[in-house]
Amino acid sequence: MEQLAIGHPEVADGVACWRLADATGVLDVNSRYSYLLWCRDFAATSVVARRDGELVGFVTGYRRPDAPSALVVWQVGVDAAARGQGVAAAMLDDLFDRVPEVDHLEATVTPDNKGSIALFSRFAERRGAPVRRSELFGSELLGADHEPEILFRIGPVDR
């Protein structure tokens, strides 16, 4: 099996990211168009992972305009066949190390998403960084059928 190759996405990767997001069955799937735009406009703060030339994962992110030292992770998607192999953690580490002048990582996670809670908690452990958790958006804003989004603010992170 080929090594995992992690790099910034190209516009055409947006289609594969959209398909992968849909296939996870757990991510809020945005329009195909939005993934294309994301891979164009936020490629510097996002990564994709390939194995044997096939896209097996992605992390989309951006720098907060009012706090540019914070890298916000929007979505993490990993193909079912690649789960449990450290792909998400490898992409997260790689992305954080690629984005200059950031010392915090932020992400929102619903309370029932044990996988993402573990992913971000382990990132903080690996980096020796504190984690602060607070509700960012409650169900009253997201809709009664959506759990609250808990903000994980990790940092400062030593580089």
UniProtKB/TrEMBL annotation:
Entry keyword annotation includes Metal-binding: no
* Domain (N-acetyltransferase): residue spans on this chain: 4-159
- Family to which this protein belongs: Belongs to the acetyltransferase family. EctA subfamily.
Which InterPro entries does the record associate with it? Answer: Acyl_CoA_acyltransferase (IPR016181), Ectoine_EctA (IPR012772), GNAT_dom (IPR000182)
What EC number(s) would the UniProt record show? 2.3.1.178
Name of the molecule in the record: L-2,4-diaminobutyric acid acetyltransferase
- According to its UniProt entry, this protein's organism is Pseudonocardia zijingensis
Query: What Pfam families does the record tag this protein with?
Result: Acetyltransf_1 (PF00583)
